[in-house]
UniProtKB/TrEMBL annotation:
<dbReference type="Pfam" id="PF13377">
    <property type="entry name" value="Peripla_BP_3"/>
</dbReference>
<dbReference type="GO" id="GO:0003700">
    <property type="term" value="F:DNA-binding transcription factor activity"/>
</dbReference>
<dbReference type="InterPro" id="IPR028082">
    <property type="entry name" value="Peripla_BP_I"/>
</dbReference>
<dbReference type="InterPro" id="IPR046335">
    <property type="entry name" value="LacI/GalR-like_sensor"/>
</dbReference>
<keyword id="KW-0805">Transcription regulation</keyword>
<dbReference type="InterPro" id="IPR010982">
    <property type="entry name" value="Lambda_DNA-bd_dom_sf"/>
</dbReference>
<feature type="domain" description="HTH lacI-type">
    <location>
        <begin position="7"/>
        <end position="61"/>
    </location>
</feature>
<protein>
    <submittedName>
        <fullName>Putative LacI family transcriptional regulator</fullName>
    </submittedName>
</protein>
<dbReference type="InterPro" id="IPR000843">
    <property type="entry name" value="HTH_LacI"/>
</dbReference>
<keyword id="KW-0804">Transcription</keyword>
<dbReference type="GO" id="GO:0000976">
    <property type="term" value="F:transcription cis-regulatory region binding"/>
</dbReference>
<keyword id="KW-0238">DNA-binding</keyword>
<dbReference type="Pfam" id="PF00356">
    <property type="entry name" value="LacI"/>
</dbReference>
Amino acid sequence: MARDKDITIYDIATQLGVSPSTVSRALKNTNAVGNATRKKILATARELGYQTNTFASNLRKQRSNTLGVMVHELRSNFITSVLSGIENVAAETNYDLIIAHSSENAKKERANANNLFHKRVDGLIASLASDTSNLHHFKSFVDKSLPVVFFDRVFEQDLGAKVIINNFKAGYDATQHLIRQGCERIAHITSSLNRNVYSERLRGYKAALADNGIAFDERMVIVDGLAEEHAAYSAKRILKLSPLPDGIFITNDFCAAVVMQVLKDAGIHIPEDMAIVGFNNDAISKVISPKLTTIDYPGYEMGQIAARQIISHLKGTSNINTTNTIILHSELIIRESSLKQIS
């Protein structure tokens, strides 16, 4: 039969004939209550269905023990691995998570930020939507001295601590690898250049071309979305280039897998006709044929570090305002898709 009201410490105290303060101390497992009495109180609490009111307790302490996490999408292997890293650290430190996603929409991101602020999260971990143009909607967190850690997609010169990789170096390394395989006409498929991750990878691509005496051709850079339909359209644009590229650096593994399939369906041999490098080291990179050369992007570690930074700040053991930016190591993983046969 359903209860009319929640069981309180006063109900437990009345049933056992002890004071409410004794019940409270026993439920907190303090040494101020004898072992026999504590066991009796805990058993009665279980029997009556008592639930700890953590919300009220946290409210008194001005803490919710909850972190907000805002991501730009949920269907990405990279984002899934980041969330797994955040959740691992949060569970270890008894923090709950409220996860919101912007669906790559700045307006929704602003609404999410406002919602998480009013849910009284203790801090926020965020990755920006593709069309976010400023960080004004995070100002309420700053004004209340609530820590904000941005990861992956950030404004590198703006507020908040950041956890990123060196996207310039990753773009350079990917392009340099293709050049070393003999590629001279290298295309680049990427997404919104408003975001640091894509603009920096493009900058690395351009620098590698320049360092090897290869002229930059803006027709070889395709900027579009990374979903399946966008990737297929990008592949068709590649096929219209004349002469055809002999290498492609693609800024996302799923996009690369779709592009590869469209190219193979059109009779292009990979890597003999076109060598391809992706980005993220997603699971799909290991199962497509040929297996995809890619940049290993440490999402799980990124999530762990972002969570540790914000929780350490909340516990007073570090200050994210003095940390600013943490740059993680990324690595080129060479597989069959880029290994041309050079005579």
